[in-house]
Write a structure and sequence with these properties.
With about 650 residues, the chain is α+β, with helices and mostly antiparallel strands. The chain is about 20% helix and about 30% strand. It is globular and about 85 Å long. Bound molecules: alpha-L-arabinofuranose (AHR).
């Protein structure tokens, strides 16, 4: 009997939930197609890149070997000595024996010809190798004495030999060598060995291992899978190189773009500021090789069709750290000169001082830089003073370059208000705002920009991400609750496209075994990468940017949380589409009725791309990279309306051709 009651209960509950499914929303929406709202800037949705979480070295940069040039403070970090089966010999890390930024190299000395002697590199939390791929090994070497040769080996996690190559002859002058090593097995956690065979002494430096297959098959290139995920977003801009990394924990540690261009031997390796930042995630082996330097950032931006947005130190080190400050006047001049030279490096003809450096690096055409950022998350009168000094010089020389200023680390409060007030007085062009807040904040602030001055500076929502626990908590998750809340907030950014000209999630990339900061948009290990739910939300906005906003209203108000709904809409003049974005934070699915006003003809069918989950805690992972991902379906419109069925806890993009 009890069982019958239970199953009856179950049946009646199913009926209730079925009828809930068919429910039409009590919040009919209206889109007036005769009202052309703000233009959506081509830069509206973009990317924020920072070398945090092994995003560059160990991530986007396809180099397999850590500390390839022995320039870490501990020159042997990442390398182990191999001495097996009675081999007899030495390895020395030589310090400061040559001038310039590439100061150190290694000496391998063999005293007998038996056994195995050399070095082993463990990569960035292991080395990812693919079966059938060939790897390009390059190194500098010179023979000091004897007739020893160098042997390179790819070693699997079970110690199997997966590939090998030999360099027999070596000259006594420093010479660059290149070997190809085909790999026989896929392995996520392989090792690389550089062995010395025979008897003798060899000096070695800049030992580098890359797959031949990189993004655009460039030598020393980027990981194809990661760049593809970025390119798929069709981003409007690429901000680089960060973040706090721009500022440094002191001025010496700030990002200095001139040291990141040209030949690798001239790019000074330095400790990454995220190496020591968090007690809960110390990463002593995190350095910057600058294999991805400013040239490569510009090139990446160009490859993926994004406007480059470099950001430079304003002469104030991170105010959460040392807050070291450059005095105004002559001391600040080199910092301002760096900005001016950067514009020349990016834009000036190949016969100019800095344009010629770009041309020599393989890009005679300009990179078309239109934006430059001055300072990151700086605050106080010290920032304003310095921002003014930068603006004066940059605007006098390059009036068409738009300056992005910062409003500090917090999206509200005394410092924020002060900076906005001062920047407004300066006629600042674009102001960078950051918000790392709980999901509720994002939903509650979806109308944030409805209230902004339409004639004031424009906004760059430069860093944001919903934090499932609290900012910098190691327990933060890229879950659906966070992504859905960001989607709700982003409808507010879109609706206010006259004020908000740029927006980017942050941070962008994270290695699953080497992160410092969570959440992050894209995660990867040594072989594969996946997009989080947040990634798909970003992508659904950026690939459906449209040309101008059309108002979506309920009772003449913007749709910003009433009845658990958030909505915005744009028209795409190139594809002749109306694109409507709807976030339903209610648990139940429902039919949203959208009345359309204006003169137009609708196509017979439209498409809906939808992401939804009953479980707000759902996440993607290396094992289940698409556990939550967008799905497409079709819908048929009414004559002058759209009736769109959206799932519970969903984000939908509905598109239909209009004439
Ligand atoms: O995105 C991580 C960090 O958060 C950035 O470096 C900084 O700008 C912000 O505080």
């Amino acid at each position: 009997m009890k069982r019958i009651i239970t199953s009856l209960l179950f049946v009646s509950m199913s009926i209730i939930s079925l009828s809930v499914k068919a429910q039409v929303s009590q919040t009919p929406l209206k889109i007036d197609l005769s009202v052309k709202g703000a233009d959506v800037q081509p830069t509206m949705w973009g990317l924020f890149f920072e070398d945090i979480n092994f995003a560059a070295d160990g991530g986007l940069y396809a180099e397999k070997l850590k500390n390839y040039s022995f320039e870490f403070d501990n020159p042997m970090m990442g390398w182990n000595r191999v001495e097996e089966n009675q081999a007899n010999g030495y390895t020395y890390a030589m310090s400061y024996t040559v001038a310039g930024p590439n100061k150190k190299y290694i000496q391998l000395k063999r005293l007998n010809a038996i056994g195995t002697l050399g070095l082993q590199n463990s990569g960035f939390r292991g080395i990812g190798l693919q079966k059938g791929e060939t790897y390009r090994l390059t190194f500098q070497a010179r023979k000091v004495s004897g007739n020893a040769q160098l042997v390179a080996q790819l070693i699997g996690s079970e110690k199997a030999l997966l590939g090998t190559a030999v360099q027999k002859q070596l000259t006594s002058e420093w010479t660059g060598y290149e070997l190809s090593i085909p790999c026989s097995e896929t392995d996520k956690n392989a090792r690389f060995r550089l062995l010395i065979e025979g008897e003798g002494t060899i000096d070695v430096d800049m030992v580098s291992l890359f797959p031949y297959s990189t993004w655009k098959d460039r030598k020393r290139g980027m990981r194809k899978d990661i760049v593809q995920l970025l390119a798929d977003m069709q981003p409007g801009f690429l901000r680089f190189p960060g973040g706090c990394i721009v500022e440094g924990f002191d001025l010496e540690n700030r990002y200095q773009w001139k040291k990141t261009i040209g030949d690798m031997a001239g790019r000074e390796v330095r400790v990454n500021r995220w190496n020591t930042e968090f007690g809960h995630r110390p990463t002593p082996d995190y350095y910057q090789s600058f294999g991805i330097g400013f040239f490569e950032y510009f090139q990446l931006a160009e490859d993926i069709g994004a406007a480059p947005l470099p950001i430079l130190s304003c002469g104030l080190a991170c105010q959460f750290n040392s807050g070291e400050i450059v005095q105004m006047g002559a001391d600040l001049e080199p910092y301002i000169q760096d900005a001016v030279d950067l514009i020349e490096f990016a834009n000036a003809p190949a016969n100019t001082q800095w344009g010629s450096v770009r041309a020599e690096m393989g890009h005679p055409a300009p990179f078309n830089l239109r934006f430059i950022g001055v300072g990151n998350e700086n605050w106080g009168p010290q920032y304003i003073e310095r921002a003014k000094a930068f603006a004066e010089v940059i605007k006098a020389r390059y009036p068409d370059v738009t300056i992005v200023s910062t409003s500090g680390p917090s999206p509200e409060g005394k410092e924020f208000d002060y900076l906005w007030g001062e920047l407004k007085k300066m006629n600042a062009e674009i102001i960078d705002e950051h918000y790392y807040r709980q999901p509720e904040w994002f939903r509650e602030n979806a109308n944030r920009y409805d209230k902004y001055d339409r004639n004031g500076p424009k906004v760059f929502a430069g860093e944001y991400a919903a934090q499932s626990v609290f900012t910098v908590s190691p327990d933060n998750q890229n879950n659906w609750n966070c992504a859905l809340s960001e989607a709700a907030f982003m409808t507010g950014l879109e609706r206010n496209a006259d004020v908000v000209h740029m927006a980017s999630y942050a941070p962008l990339l994270a290695h699953v075994d080497a992160w410092q900061w969570k959440p992050d948009l894209i995660w990867f290990d040594n072989l594969s990468a996946f997009g989080t739910p947040n990634y798909y939300v970003q992508k659904m906005f950026s690939t459906n940017r449209g040309s101008y906003v059309v108002p979506v209203t309920h009772d003449n108000h913007s749709v910003s949380g009433q009845d658990n709904l958030f909505a915005s809409a744009v028209v795409d003049t190139a594809t002749h589409e109306l694109i409507v974005k709807i976030v339903n934070t209610a648990q139940n699915s429902r039919k949203i009725n959208i009345d359309l006003a204006g003169k137009f003809k609708l196509a017979a069918k439209g498409t809906i791309t939808e992401m939804a989950a009953d479980d707000l805690a759902v996440i993607n992972s290396i094992e289940e990279p698409q556990k939550i991902a967008p799905a497409e379906s079709e819908f048929e419109p009414g004559k002058k309306s759209l009736v769109i069925e959206v799932k519970g806890q969903s984000f939908s993009v509905a598109k239909i051709k209009i004439k």
